[in-house]
Automatic annotation (TrEMBL):
Record lineage: Eukaryota, Metazoa, Ecdysozoa, Arthropoda, Hexapoda
Skewed-composition ranges (Low complexity): 225-239
A Pfam family hit: ADK
Superkingdom field: Eukaryota
Protein name: Adenylate kinase
Gene3D superfamilies attached to this UniProt entry: P-loop containing nucleotide triphosphate hydrolases
Region listing for Disordered, in residue ranges: 210-251
Amino acid sequence: MGCFYSRRNEEEDTVYDMTPIRHLPVIFVNGVPGAGNQTVAQTMSNITGYTMIRPGELVRAEAQKDTARGRLIADKLQAQEDIPEQMTVDLIKEAMLQQAEAKGFILVGFPKNPRMSNIFNRQVKWPEKVVALEVDNEVAATRLQNKLSELGRPESEINAARQIVREAAHKVKNVHKRFGGHVVTLDSSGNPKALATTLKEILSDTIEKCQKRPDSPLADPGPPTAVSAPAVAPLSTPLTKAPIELKDEDC
């Protein structure tokens, strides 16, 4: 596994054969911290049977390993620096290949920025859909502060919640512009119980297309699984909206 990553070179150090994955549907769930990324992704997984992949969790798990890549990630987390985009995408590719029998994949809080989406689109595939979560920045910041407080994070980190949300919102807006017609929006500021119904409508065309494929894994429904991580990112072109109920673990 390559362990040197340069921002000047987007190409992967290790070449992955993603052929087993390219016929599978991929959906991004994208919203700022505090938008309810995990709640929405879990509901979608329950509807579709797709496997959830949480990139943030993959990164944290890798940081625990005594490898060149693991140590590099641990150092960057300790220094509160961004993980190289290529490295994050590599971890996602490895998780996907380990779950090649999946019906499809839901990437939670991905991508964080346009560069990360460019790498994924080129090296893996374009997503069938990007579900963009809309929420007022102040609401998201309050939720994030509450979550960080529950986790016992330092006061400085809790106080930085508004800035974290603002910066994430700017980055993700740029991501959503790139995906155009692939983006559907979901209002995550409220909490009625219409979430599952609305998501079924949003996902109906994707599910139908996959069911029509001769090799479709959806022909044999089974329980959804989760591979791993949290989220980031925000709004976009309105299409379908429904408020959702958030869980404590959302961020």
